[in-house]
Amino acid sequence: MATVVFPSQLPLHGEACIIRTSDRTSIGAPSPDDGFVKVVKNKQYFKRYQVKFKRRRQGKTDYYARKRLTIQDKNKYNTPKYRLIVRLSNKDITCQVAYSRIEGDRIVCAAYSHELPKYGVKVGLTNYASAYCTGLLLARRLLKKLGLDTLYVGNTEVSGDAYNIEELDSGPGAFRCYLDTGLMRTTTGARVFGAMKGAVDGGLDIPHSTKRFPGYDNESKMFNAETHRQHIFGQHVANYMRTLEEEDDEAFKRQFSQYIKHGISANDIEDIYKKAHEAIRVNPQYEKIVKEKEPIKKRWNRAKLSLSERKNRVAQKKASFLQTLEEAET
Predict the structure, then answer these.
(1) What is its main location (predicted)?
(2) pLDDT in tens, 37-55
(3) From CA 33, how far away is CA 2, in angstroms rounded?
(4) Torsions phi, psi of 117, nearest 5?
(5) Which end of the chain is least crowded, N or C, by CB within 10 Å?
(6) Residue 205 has what DSSP assignment?
(7) Beta-carbon neighbour count of residue 305 at 10 Å?
(8) Is 142 helix (H, G, I), strand (E, B) or coil?
(9) Burial, 177: exposed, middle or buried (Cβ in 10 Å; 0-12, 13-18, 19+)?
(10) Is residue 86 helix, strand or coil?
(11) Which residues pair with 111 in a beta bridge?
């Protein structure tokens, strides 16, 4: 007997359907001796196929998460729903506060880790401590832009413990936004939560818990704030520097070459980040880099020749070529 396959049982999402047949009478299939037969999708399948969004096909946007981060309650009308967007690259950390509109996202404020050298952090611009500094810089810059920096100072004593901004009894409320991690894996101790912690300590109201901070133990359900504080001040990097220098001096010089170049030792790291936190609070304003204007380059285009000029040019080339041949013969 043959296996009967109905149209509703055909694959819908690119899977290959394998059918085992026992004779040649079923849907033109070969004999059992020929093995398995792959059913190819028919014309109707491709005519009805709807492609996914471009950024989904490119693997850049998680629309399941984006829909839940951008949809606003109807009783809030046109009130923006702000998102704290954190993106990590090989050499930089980007933090933005944005809200969604039908024509696209609008950026309210942004901060980057490549701005940290202005505040004294010249190396290690993508580690957990730098992520915290970038989030802190974003929060202070945004609140200063909105005129809330004096009302919501945030957490000035960094202990690594849980902290949530308290709204004032009278006056404007705290600026609330929601963490947007994109496609990053939200594992315990991820740098994206370091940026969020910096933004929270900077005075933003972001719903969160301590379960994803460094120092949280999933088995005992306990949170060690001291471990988190060490990460905020880069002590996990300092401890690794000391260990690597003792075990393999060549690997230490290769991996921490920029630290050696700037004269930064493991004992200096905590003071560097403490001073950076203070400097960020003093002046979080973005300073545009003024570049020297490039000189206007002149274009030396050849003038177009008329027909008579082109014919004359060809005649001159012919005469020159013939003269060269005559000189070669003599």
Answers:
(1) cytoplasm
(2) 777 888 889 999 999 999 9
(3) 14
(4) -55, -25
(5) C
(6) B
(7) 11
(8) helix
(9) buried
(10) strand
(11) 95
Give the list of residues 6+ apart from residue 255 with CB closer than 8 angstroms, or none: 244
- Tell me what pLDDT residue 34 has: 63
Polymer length of the chain: 330
Q: CA–CA separation, 243 vs 253, rounded Å?
A: 13
Report d(CA 112, CA 116) in Å as an integer. 8
Share of the chain above pLDDT 70, in %: 90
Structure tokens at 305: 């020749």
Taking the domains of the chain in order of start, what are their residue ranges? 54-282
**HSE, side-chain direction, 13 A CA sphere, residue 300:** 0
- With residue 107 as reference, give the H or E element that holds it: strand 104-112
List phi, psi (to 5°) of 190: -65, 150
pTM equals 0.76
Distance CA 16, CA 14 (A): 7
Of the candidates 143, 160, 276, 286, the residue with the CA atom closest to the CA atom of residue 205? 143
Q: 3.60.15.10, 3.40.50.1010, 3.30.420.100, 3.90.1140.10: which CATH number matches 54-282?
A: 3.30.420.100
Q: What residue has token string 């693997």?
A: 59
Q: Return d(Cα 193, Cα 190) in angstroms, integer.
A: 6
What is the C-alpha R_g of the chain?
33
Residue pLDDT, tens place only, 131-172:
999 999 999 999 999 999 999 999 999 999 999 999 988 889
Given the structure tokens 């700037």, which residue do they identify?
262
pLDDT digits (tens, 9 = 90+) for 247-276: 999 999 999 999 999 999 999 999 999 999
